[in-house]
Amino acid sequence: MSDTAFAGALALALAYAGMALLCLAMDRHHQQVWGREPSRRQRLGLQGGGSVLLALALLPCVAAWSATVGVVLWLGFLSAGVLPLVFLLPYAPRATVCSALLLAPLALAGLTSLL
Fold this sequence. Notes:
Elements (H helix, E strand, L loop, with lengths): L2 H22 L2 H8 L5 H17 L1 H7 L2 H25 L1 H22 L1
Helix pairs in contact: 1-3, 1-4, 1-5, 1-6, 4-5, 5-6
């Protein structure tokens, strides 16, 4: 796998996991998955974790492409990362959590090898 394809896969995985955490910080989606509303601490933790993962998704884009092209591709990966959530979250909310919890550590481990 080429470096640019690997960077794209990492950015997409980080964007998906980050968007999933931001979705789970919302009352409605948290209720769907766990059957209760999140506490203030849980909501802040999910929002913070999702924001960090989205920011980290920028790193492989900038590392593989230049800064100008990398930022544009990062925005595209953010859009592509949320698209599976649109279809998966309403129908299989637990699968969303499992996939995000699986992808986040794998992508972070891959990020360390890229940088």
